[in-house]
Amino acid sequence: MSKKIEPQKIECSVVDCAHNCVKDCTCKLEKISVCPCGESKEAKKDENTLCSSYHYVGNLNVEEVLNNQ
After folding, report:
1. 3-state class of 34 per DSSP?
2. Which value, in Å, is the radius of gyration of the alpha carbons in the chain?
3. How far is CA 28 from CA 15, 33, 38, 42, 44, in A?
4. C-alpha dihedral over 47, 51, 52, 56, to 10 degrees?
């Protein structure tokens, strides 16, 4: 018997990204690209986002969700 493979979900709490579905904190992209901030190959601090697929939309994402409820 084969196991049913569930689709992978990418959880994201960065609400000002255009790809974040704020209702359930999931990324709408099929794949993401993650890299360290700056020129280093290592992430030295936990600030901003390391997701290079990030697309800033400010409060638009939150406002869209709140207005559609």
Report:
1. strand
2. 15
3. 12, 13, 25, 26, 27
4. -70
In angstroms, the CA 46 to CA 14 distance is 13
Which tokens sit at 45?
């601090």
In which residue are the tokens 């600030």 written?
47
Res 3: pLDDT: 76
Q: What is the pLDDT along the chain (69 residues), one digit of tens a residue?
A: 677 877 778 888 888 888 988 888 889 998 888 876 666 666 555 556 677 788 888 777 766 655 654
Q: pTM (2 decimals)?
A: 0.58
Distance CA 25, CA 27 (A): 7
Give the residue among 14, 16, 38 at the shortest CA–CA distance from 26: 14
d(CA 26, CA 69): 17
